[in-house]
Amino acid sequence: MGDRQTKMAAALAALSGSDRARLERMADRGDTTPELLWEAVYQYGFDDMEESIEANIEMDNAAAAGQLIPHEELMRQVDDMLAENAKRKRRTA
Question: What is the pTM of this model?
């Protein structure tokens, strides 16, 4: 194992009971294992990863409810906005 992997493994083994339980809850919410999630938690921290997991869940729910704009439509809207802005700039120049 590399030095970083060794440090990560040691940090995982040293987690308090409450932190281990938190990691397990996060893994369950994120539909992964604590071991797979640990690398991201080790790098970014518990709070950031909890926020990321919750944001992913919200986006999954929004997508399932049809509340998201498809990528192609969004890109068309962006192109239209840029073209309109370019027309305005040409008119004022």
Answer: 0.72
